[in-house]
Amino acid sequence: MSQVLYDVVDGIARITLQNPPVNGLGFAVRKGLVEALDQAEGDAAVSAIVITGNDRAFSGGADITEFGTPRSGWHPGLRTVIEVLEQASKPVVAAIDGVCLGGGLELALGTHFRVAAAQAKIGLPEVKLGLLPGAGGTQRLPRLLGLEAALDLIVTGRIVKASTLANTPLFDRVVETPVVEAAIEFAKEVVRQGTPLKRVRDLKINQPDAEAFLQVARRNIAAANKNQPAPLLCLEAVAGCVSLPFDQGLVNERELFVKLMGSPESLALRHVFAAERTATKIPDIPADTPLRDIRKVGVIGAGTMGGGISMNYLNVGIPVVLLELTQAALDHGVGIIRRNYEISLKRGRLTQAQLDERMALLSTTLSYEDLADVDLVIEAVFEDMGVKEKVFKALDAVIKPGAILASNTSGLDVDVIAGFTKRPEDVIGLHFFSPANVMKLLEIVRGAKTAKDVLATSIAMAKKIGKKPVVSGICDGFIGNRMLMSYRAAAEEILMGGASPASIDKALENFGFAMGPHRMGDLAGLDISWSIRKRRQAENPDVDLSVVADRLCMAGRFGQKNGAGWYKYEAGSRTPIVDPVVEKIIEDYRAEKGITPRTYTDSEIVERCVYALVNEGARILEEGIALRASDIDVVYLSGYGFPLHRGGPMHYAQQVGLFNVVRAIRRFAAQSDKAAEFWQPAALLQNTEAGQALK
Question: Where do the DSSP E strands lie in 347-490?
Fold first, then answer.
């Protein structure tokens, strides 16, 4: 099937892109566009040309299926296509609907006129891939929107509706009516009136004190994007439209684009882009698997987690029934949900009408019988198998056939939980991360008997509520928390060896983590991990699983929730303050264990903690708990604060070199018999250390 259709309507040539799903500008589309333009130019019966896509997409930009392949560089390139558009002797009108992003918008900027549907989505999001617009976007958009507005869109990658730009030279018309018909009528009007063709490249930048504005912008952008070179180079490309002739501005843009294309930050961001999309592809689940209809959701537990889970569904218009044991607990939970929405209202992210609408979708109950008609129920109760058993047996007795029964467990065996019901095929793990209404990650835990349509429905629903789903097999802690245990164990080893909590946190935060392990522990609550360790200790009485954090908990230090954990906190503040009491607890614990403290460099702290993640991630891959190395990266980027510009632990390891990672692990193992027990390189790392990529 041709990816570019050509027909003529009343003397107007209509060129229609059809490369689903978003009309990516692959080689066949680029070549077809030039051929169609040449055909229209050579036809005396054609007076004007309209280029369009469909109601889903004018064009989403580059064809991602060509990334890294020779076809991406085959001629004609996008810049050539745009030059052909500009040089056309007949009026060329872009009819824009759906998404018009990246190279798609750059294509539209090359036409003489633009007609857009009011709801069309417009943007140049290349910066989110660590790149900048490379087909003239940094030179043309400022000529239409002005320097400040264009720079904002390019540097942030923000996507806006066409209606917000209706009164700018970017669009000649913004319409509510079908956009193709409107564009054809506009083209006829241009021909009738003999309107001169408008080439964006010929427009002048009108910006008083442009250099002073750019200097201020440089400082602000540099301060806000310390680990990302792309935003600042976006600015330098845009600055070229002020100081350079148009064609030299294009050359400058191209040089900066090529520089970014090979940067580690862009490689990481492009890896993440692909990883997030690949994570939802499950080999044994066909893309056309019928989904179960989710029209109503039940949530068990009105605590922080249950309330946050409920908000995800209320936000997309799905009614929620919230169950608790007491009316007081229900009232408290509903109050927290309302307060969260009221905060969004005050910040301008929500209207009063939207707040009222969402709260109206929430109902509460003290009886399991009131959940009889829900299509999906999620328990968010205490992390104890006995409690889970009571809940799932109660649900099994009342929930209708065909409904999905989900557990929000962060590490318990979903197969055991499924065994509490007579319908294990309907049971799945949906591990939300706190705060559940904010955090993007959703670990979907597939049980041995989980039905394929239950898994497919869970993935689709995760996307609908704005989550980034990753499928995990069953093991203690699943993907994320299992790796977190190794990360914390490495941090514990460093702490016991002589480093302070603050020095460990500082090294990892300088590497790019959102928080070091001790600050993160205080935020999450030290008592949560303590309860997990006590459970594991009971299950393994012959193994000493104690850590120094146990002593903090015994002293009543649970983190930010009570103002004292690894750090102390002043009332109403989240700022960590080094506490001599903690230093004394750590010193005493080291003395008990007979440890002589030493110093650690920042680089050794980072290596030990990050390589512990990598090593455990490799074991998870070996065991089939995760389907792909890139799935692990999505988990750690979306749920655990791993630095985005590093691409995730597994991607980072491959950039460092697996040989070097294994060599470092062996060096750590050689330091003591106890170290040798922990620092055993995963077989998968050793098998691929010669240079093969982790898959």
Answer: 362-365, 376-379, 404-407, 427-432, 441-445, 468-472
Residue whose structure tokens are 């707040």: 355
Alpha-carbon torsion angle 166, 171, 175, 179, nearest 10: -150
Over residues 534-589, the pLDDT tens digits come to: 888 888 888 777 889 999 999 999 999 899 999 999 988 999 999 999 999 999 99
Range 480-624+628-688: architecture per CATH:
Orthogonal Bundle (1.10)
Q: Is the pLDDT of residue 691 over 60?
A: no
CATH architecture of 297-472: 3-Layer(aba) Sandwich (3.40)
- Known active-site residue 86: no
Contact 379, 391 (CB under 8 A): yes
Domain boundaries, the chain: 4-261, 297-472, 480-624+628-688
Amino acid type, 531: S
Measured in Å, how far apart are the chain's first and last C-alpha atoms? 33
Is the distance from CB of 124 to CB of 137 less than 8 angstroms? yes
Burial 585-624 (b: 16+ CB within 10 A, else e): bbeebbeeeeeeeeebeeebbbbbbbbbbbbbbbbbbeee
Before 264, cis peptide (omega within 30)? no
Structure tokens at 247: 């064609």
Classify domain 4-261 at the CATH topology level.
2-enoyl-CoA Hydratase; Chain A, domain 1 (3.90.226)
Six-digit token pair at 502? 């603050």
Instruction: Answer whether residue 68 shows pLDDT above 90.
Output: no
DSSP 410: S
List the catalytic residue out of 86, 106, 493, 607: 106
Q: What is the CA radius of gyration of the chain?
A: 29
Residue 194: both structure tokens together: 């003999």
CA 245 vs CA 134, 136, 210, 259: distances in Å? 17, 13, 15, 21
Establish whether 342 is a catalytic residue. Answer: no
Neighbouring-strand partners of residue 599 = none
pTM: 0.90
Q: Is 657 helix (H, G, I), strand (E, B) or coil?
A: coil
Contact between 33 and 82 under an 8 Å Cβ cutoff? The reply is no
How many angstroms separate the CA atoms of 534 and 22, rounded?
51
Report yes or no: 661 and 505 within 8 Å, Cβ to Cβ: no
191 — pLDDT class (breaks 50, 70, 90):
very high
What is the distance between the alpha carbons of residues 513 and 506, in angstroms, rounded to a whole number? 9
Given 83, 86, 126, 276, the catalytic residue: 126
Edge-first strand listing for the sheet containing 113-117? 4-9, 12-17, 48-52, 92-96, 113-117, 173-175
Q: Is the peptide bond prior to 229 cis by the omega test (within 30 degrees of 0)?
A: no
* CB atoms closer than 10 angstroms to residue 149: 15
